[in-house]
Amino acid sequence: MRLKRLAAAGTAAVVAATLTACGGFDTPSGGGEAEASGGAGGADAEKVFKVAFNQNAEQPEAVAMTHLGERLAERTDGRYSLEVFPNETLGAQKDTVELVQAGTVDFALVAGSLLENFNPDFVALNMPFAYDSQEHQEAVLNDPEITGDVYSSIEDQNIRVLGGFSAGTRSVYNSEKPITEPADLAGMKIRVMESDTNTRMMELMGGTGTPMGQGEVYTAIQSGVIEGGENNESIYANLKHAEVAPYYSYTKHLMIPDLLITSPAVFDTMSADDQAIFLEELQGAFDESSELTTKIMADSKAAAEEAGAEFNEPDVEPFRDAVAPLVDEKLTTDTSRELYDAVRAAAE
Ligand code: GCU
């Protein structure tokens, strides 16, 4: 039955093959959905929501979501739980947005950039140098006064944003040399997330932005299709990008939030009380992930260094100046401008 539902989605074949390969979805029992395996966590419950995640199960958000599932099961007397499917098991982020829209996957963690494709105003949360710190970003992401409207703005496209996680600060890395100024990026193809804003950002920073899913980056660098990427220390170390691109330069240009999305049709199957429990416990997940994020970034830097990475600290001001035109280019509506102003005001 589940496979039939998956068949409705565009990426069904890949998803079905992956799930079968990792042992999921072929163990029907009286428990129905609750028996799905192949992910991390998944306390027993009548309904186990599937959560798509593109990173590994040790990453802060996966850990926090798994624990959220356990608390949810406890507080709803076993009515609901969550199971996190890491490592792009359910597809790259772009695909998982579609699976959420179709109701095939219940929740997904996706970089905010991807939602610009559904409402361009999301760009206000994804601008380079928009946040001064992780604390600043976290204060913005889960303040309904600031983000409430944009989070609910794409419900007509079957997407509801429940909140956001900070995913660290992104910097560039490449296979050739330390980057000390924008001119050093000339001629380099740097992988960016799949949004026009990120492609344009990289152009302004001096390089050429090549959009692709996270899972393809290692091979693309290794085969010389691109020279590097831009990401936080954790992804850099974890996906072993240091092996193929050992120069990590702290341009610190971007803090893209990871947003937890669901579809209203799925979320509203829960009673109002259960929804309230979910949202309350979600705050705990944000807190847990926040603490783990701080720690994992520091640990990852050390791990990457051990694997041969060389970190350098360029002056970030020339990069900040280089991307400044994006504000006028991208914040073209009153709502996006107001949202951006609110983001910046929260820094003060
Ligand atoms: C980070 C971020 C993800 C994003 C990824 C990427 O890991 O948390 O949401 O998908 O970077 O660069 O694709």
Tell me what you see in this structure:
The chain is built from 14 helices and twelve strands. The protein is an alpha/beta fold and 348 residues long. β2 (47-52), α3 and β3 form a beta-alpha-beta unit. α3 (60-75) packs antiparallel against α11 (272-306). The longest helix is centred in the last third of the chain and has 35 residues, at 272-306. The chain is globular, with a radius of gyration of 20 Å. 48% of the residues are buried. Bound molecules: alpha-D-glucopyranuronic acid. Alpha-D-glucopyranuronic acid (GCU) is lined by residues 54-55, 93, 111, 167, 193, 214, 231, 235, 258.
Average residue pLDDT = 89
Helix and strand pattern: HHEEHEHEHHEEEHEHEHEEHHEHHH
Total E-strand runs: 12
Radius of gyration: 20 Å
In one word, what is the shape?
globular
Largest β-sheet summary: 6 strands, mixed
Hetero groups in this structure are:
alpha-D-glucopyranuronic acid
Helicity, in percent?
A: 40-55%
- Tell me the structural class: alpha/beta
If strands are numbered along the chain, what order do they take across the biggest sheet? 1-3-2-4-11-5
Distance separating the two termini: 52 Å
Q: Percent of residues in beta strands?
A: 15-25%
Low-confidence stretches: 1-38
Number of helices: 14
